[in-house]
Amino acid sequence: MKRFFANFGVVVPLIAGLLSVSCLKKDGTVLTIGATPQPHAQILNFIKDDYKKKGFTLNIVEFTDYVAPNSALLDGSIDANFFQHIPYLEERDIWANNLVSAFGVHVEPFALYSLKYKNTAEIPDGALIAIPNDPTNGGRALLLLEAHGLITLKPGVGLIATELDIVENPHNFKFAALESAALPPTLKDVDAACINGNYALQAGLSPARDSLIIEGAASQYVNIVVVRKDTKNDPRITALEEVMLTDKVRNYVAKTWPDGNVMVVF
């Protein structure tokens, strides 16, 4: 089974964001946090005023990929990030050994989308399905397909399944592994694509309404605020948790992303 790879980066916004960080005076009252735009940065912008009332300033730097936020956190360019789940954090030793979850916030349902077909029964034999190219989200896509009877994986393969772990592929699906951010624009060129919730939302897709199949409510992929291990108990992080895990944020999320497109876990 052939595996395709592609990298699509938006360099200019990232450079601009990091330059803005480097220009900040290091201050114990400022928390610089990296986040992908939806829903992460949107939620953070919503709580900025409440965070200010705690005596701190929230500086939000938006990233358009999944690797740079952890690199920036490791090198001290930012103080925290908000975009990932624990399986992704544990994907690389350098992340797992130096970064840690401060607290969990929400789940974004992962789903399969198509611009050509209205349900999985219509997807033809030999169809090309795009999936994320990082191990945890690629495995997440295959587990989703298996849960709905489209493929069968080796027993006990776990969260980091690959195409090599497929033991039954009755429809002879082919898979294109792409950077997660590139999946929505690729929909027009493939038969279907498994897309992370945040990138689906950015592309105007509703996981609840537009997907062919979707993860259940008991997802293992809770999105977390991540910090360096030595700053987990920093007062700025404690204050952030206090203003994020509230009824106010719960109600905001329910109103902004109805139909379960974003679900808080607190």
Architecture overview:
The chain folds into two domains: 8-108 and 221-264, D-Maltodextrin-Binding Protein, domain 2 (3-Layer(aba) Sandwich), CATH 3.40.190; 109-214, Periplasmic binding protein-like II (D-Maltodextrin-Binding Protein, domain 2), CATH 3.40.190. It has helices spanning 11-22, 37-46, 48-53, 68-74, 86-89, 93-98, 135-147, 183-186, 197-202, 207-210, 235-244, 247-256; strands at residues 3-4, 30-35, 57-62, 80-85, 99-107, 111-113, 128-132, 152-153, 166-168, 174-178, 192-195, 213-214, 222-228, 263-264. The N and C termini lie far apart (41 Å). It is α/β, with parallel strands linked by helices and 266 residues long. The protein has a six-stranded mixed sheet with strand order 1-10-7-11-6-12. The protein has a six-stranded mixed sheet with strand order 3-2-4-13-5-14, with helices on both faces. It is 35% helix and 23% strand.
